[in-house]
Fold this sequence. Notes:
Shape: globular
Number of domains: 1
CATH topology: Metallo-beta-lactamase, Chain A
Helix content: 10-25%
Number of strands: 14
CATH class: Alpha Beta
Radius of gyration: 17 Å
CATH architecture: 4-Layer Sandwich
Oligomer: single chain
Structural class: alpha/beta
Largest sheet: 7 strands, mixed
CATH superfamily: Ribonuclease Z/Hydroxyacylglutathione hydrolase-like
Distance between the termini: 5 Å
Amino acid sequence: MEITVIGSSPSWQDADGACSGYLIEEHDTAVLLDCGNGVFGKLRGRFDHHQIDAVVISHMHADHILDLVPFAYALTYGPNRESKPPLLALPPGGLAALRSLCGVWGPEGLVEEAFRASEYDPEKPLEFGSMTITFGEVPHFVPAHAMSIVGQSGARFVYGADCGPSASLVRFAENSDLLMLEATFAEGDPSAGAESDSPGHLTGKQAGELAAAAGAKRLLLTHISDERDVEQTRNIAEQAFGGPVEVAGQGSSWKL
């Protein structure tokens, strides 16, 4: 199983970057986790979008879904539009959200009709080829789901999506082979600490602590703005984790 970062920016794109989008490949199966602004163009630079089997969405914030729109236009009007469209697995309520979004300028069904779209049940796993995806709800500003992806070898990649500190995510990510966590907030940001009733994101330190508590074998940080000191965030996370920490930069990849 290979994990490739298509985009890793937070809610605004880094220079020449893209928001959340992660390509998971095993054998002849390809699944895209999230499809935020900028992701579709970056994806096309490295992979044939007609070969994507499924797109799975963690939550319905703009930086995780907006490039479903150009993806849908390509499937609807581009060459090879007779090919079988990818599955689109949305969280509960996702279809209504997309209809509202697309209805602002045109047909409400643009995205759902371009894909084979449906809403997943977070209590039930999804299977794509030799990969199995299970879901775990995490605290965010809207309903959001972490994902655990297990490949044929049994190795497990956990994508934490966007989330605040979470005991449930610690349990969900327990003993993961590769854990990807966001680190949106800078240390000392009031939104991340006691002054916030419901922090919806993590700091580097919180990400490191969460990964350590989960017993993850490897930690990747994502969702960090290039306007931040990314290396400082990595160092802080590494101290909290107690082991090496990497940053999920655009185009980077890992094999399990």
